[in-house]
Amino acid sequence: MTDTRLRPLTQRILSRLPGPRALWIGAWALVPWLNAGANFLLGTTTAVWEESRTLALLNYGFLSAAVVIALWGAERIARRLEELEETVQSVLPAYSRGRFRELNGVLGPVLATAVTALVFGVTAFLRDGWTSGLLRGATWVVVGIALWSFLWSYGALQLGLHRLGGESLSGEAARIDPGMGLHPLGGIAFTGLWMLLVWLAPVVMTGLPDVVGVAVGVSLLAAGVAAFFLPLARLHRRMAELKRGELAVARELYAQAYEPVREARTLDALERQHGLLDAADALERRARSLHEWPIDEGTVARVITIVTSVIAMAVGRIILDPLGL
Questions:
Q1: Is the dihedral of CA 74, 77, 80, 85 positive or negative?
Q2: I need a surface site. Which of 132, 218, 263, 282 has the fewest CB within 10 A?
Q3: What are the backbone angles phi and psi of residue 21, rounded to the nearest 5°?
Q4: How far is C-alpha 147 from the geometric centre of its chain's CA atoms?
Q5: pTM of the full predicted structure?
Q6: pLDDT tens digit string along 137-189?
Q7: What is the distance between the alpha carbons of residues 179 and 92, in angstroms, rounded to a whole number?
Q8: 214, 315 in Cβ contact below 8 A?
Q9: What's the rounded Cα separation, in Å, for the pair 92 and 33?
Q10: How far, in Å, CA of 39 to CA of 266, rounded?
Q11: CA distance linking residue 116 with residue 113, whole number of Å
């Protein structure tokens, strides 16, 4: 029987290791510090360390936290997508875990990790020699698997949501709740985004010391936010279409209930149609209350606030660094 579960690369690796998973995640997160200790013993340092010891310590701390978030986040995304399958299918019949099949990909994160490790390894080799190059390259093989597996999972999540945005909603969606039963999808999309922002934001603010580095970091930040909003925009169109259809039905019923009153033009006719008019009016109010996005306005405001704050702090750091501030 074919295994159809969603299992990111790091989840598969952790499941094959003996002992408690939390222990291995902690050990994985210590790899950047092991690298720092080895560099100290070998007398090799990074450019960031030479610029500021405090900044270097922050970078190692943020990288360790990023590893923990990445390992936990990739598994969290997969688990939530599976948990939502039965719930979301009632309003979006095309929903299935197969829509997110890329999340099980191995080749993509492995290749990205290999390229990253090669680039960092060659840079260290040109600067400090073979020992430093091999050490840094090996470190980024381990760290890169965690980070790239999460990024791959985040991309697979958004690609799956993009596919679902091209499918029609069930007519029952409008009768389930004002969010048409799609807020759980918006919730998992936002979960992936905040995880991405939590580990990318510190790197943008502290780990990229020049204008080019900040530009690259901000570009990655913008790409992550765009990947969050674009698939949801397709779901928004489906929700807006369904809302317009429900409004059209309510208005048609309202018009039919009001027609005898217009013809008779008497209070008696109005009284006879009072119940029908009230029902039609309630249907219209219900249709107007339907949401047009799978996320609420508060979520949008939080995303905009976080992103603009990170960009402002990164730009401020670039401006103040030459002044020694």
A1: negative
A2: 263
A3: -65, -40
A4: 14
A5: 0.82
A6: 888 899 889 989 999 999 999 999 999 888 888 877 777 778 888 888 888 88
A7: 13
A8: yes
A9: 46
A10: 92
A11: 5
